[in-house]
């Protein structure tokens, strides 16, 4: 059994790549190679950082509460940088709709593995080359818990 | 033996021979002018060593004295038959040559 974190990331990518609407690219998992302009727009998903905190209710703590920063990056190529905002928007909306989870349960995006998931920080970067390239980084904060000595189990 | 130096009058020949392409500036009095175009690959928008975009710097070298006195960025330019727009113009060295930094119009 893989870790809960690994299953959450797999689930996020699966959700992004299921019933994807026209104009929204398939999401890549932790791709290291650069995209050529012909491959854009693109969506890239990878884990960025994670923090843990013990959940002590008494003398001993059984669980560790974790906050995973799941990063989704969208890259767009447009000659006119103002057009990149319009081109970025439907892809951004799709990512949030598929990943952010308003509730926990078997129908939630992560199948109940996470307790909460929401956008915590967004950042844009721009590059002027043979055309304008725009990058939007979306950090999702994914809160979940595992047993302290077993990252594969939530309980 | 005397060493020969190239002067401004020699630049059109240097730019026009072998590598030269026609550069047509929108609204300029003198068109076309000779230039040399370089396409230099450059990775941009790389974060944390993850991915990025394989961009290209398009640099067109032309003779400064052939350019109009006022050459605002975003001026339309045709380089070797390709429609482009000037992002920036930067004089080089003693100023006899100018690099036009261009983007493709799609």
Word description of this protein:
The complex is a heterodimer of chains A (155) and B (106). Chain A has helices at residues 4-16, 81-99, and strands spanning 27-29, 42-56, 61-78, 116-128, 132-147. By secondary structure, chain A is α+β, with helices and mostly antiparallel strands. The two termini of chain A are 14 Å apart. Chain B has a single domain (8-104), classed as Thrombin, subunit H. The mean pLDDT of chain B is 90. Chain B has a 6-stranded antiparallel beta barrel with strand order 1-2-3-6-5-4. Chain B has 1 helix and 6 strands, in the order αββββββ. Classes of the chains: A alpha+beta (155), B mainly beta (106). At the A-B interface, strand 2, strand 3, strand 4 and strand 5 of A face strand 2, strand 3 and strand 6 of B.
Which key phrases capture this entry?
heterodimer; A: 155 residues; alpha+beta; STM4215-like; five-stranded mixed beta sheet; 2 helices; 5 strands; 42% strand; elongated; B: 106 residues; mainly beta; Thrombin, subunit H; six-stranded antiparallel barrel; 6% helix
Question: What is the strand and helix layout of this fold?
Answer:
The complex is a heterodimer of chains A (155) and B (106).
Chain A: H1 4-16, E1 27-29, E2 42-56, E3 61-78, H2 81-99, E4 116-128, E5 132-147
Parallel strand pairs in A: 1-2
Antiparallel strand pairs in A: 2-3, 3-5, 4-5
Chain B: H1 11-16, E1 21-25, E2 33-44, E3 53-63, E4 76-79, E5 82-92, E6 97-104
Antiparallel strand pairs in B: 1-2, 1-4, 2-3, 3-6, 4-5, 5-6
């Amino acid at each position: 059994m893989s870790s809960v974190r690994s299953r959450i990331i797999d689930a996020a990518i699966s959700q992004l790549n299921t019933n994807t609407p026209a104009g929204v690219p398939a999401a890549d998992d932790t791709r290291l190679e650069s995209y050529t302009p012909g491959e854009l727009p693109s969506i890239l998903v990878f884990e960025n950082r994670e923090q843990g905190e013990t959940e002590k209710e008494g003398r001993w703590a059984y669980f560790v509460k974790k906050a995973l920063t799941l990063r989704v990056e969208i890259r767009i190529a447009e000659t006119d940088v103002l057009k990149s905002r319009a081109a970025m928007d439907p892809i951004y909306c799709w990512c949030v709709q598929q990943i952010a989870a308003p509730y926990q349960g078997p129908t939630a995006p992560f199948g109940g593995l996470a307790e909460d998931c929401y956008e915590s920080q967004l950042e844009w970067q721009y590059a002027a080359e043979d055309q304008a390239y725009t990058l939007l980084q979306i950090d999702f904060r994914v809160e979940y818990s595992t047993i302290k000595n077993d990252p594969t189990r939530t309980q | 033996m005397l060493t020969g130096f190239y002067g401004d009058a020699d630049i059109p020949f240097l730019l026009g021979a072998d590598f030269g392409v026609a550069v047509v500036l929108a609204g300029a009095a003198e068109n076309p002018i000779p230039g040399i175009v370089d396409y230099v690959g450059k990775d941009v928008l790389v974060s944390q060593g993850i991915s990025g975009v394989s961009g290209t710097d398009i640099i067109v070298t032309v003779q400064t004295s052939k350019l109009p006195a006022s050459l605002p960025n975003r001026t339309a330019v045709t380089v070797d038959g390709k429609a482009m727009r000037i992002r920036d113009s930067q004089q080089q060295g003693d100023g006899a040559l100018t690099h036009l930094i261009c983007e493709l119009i799609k």
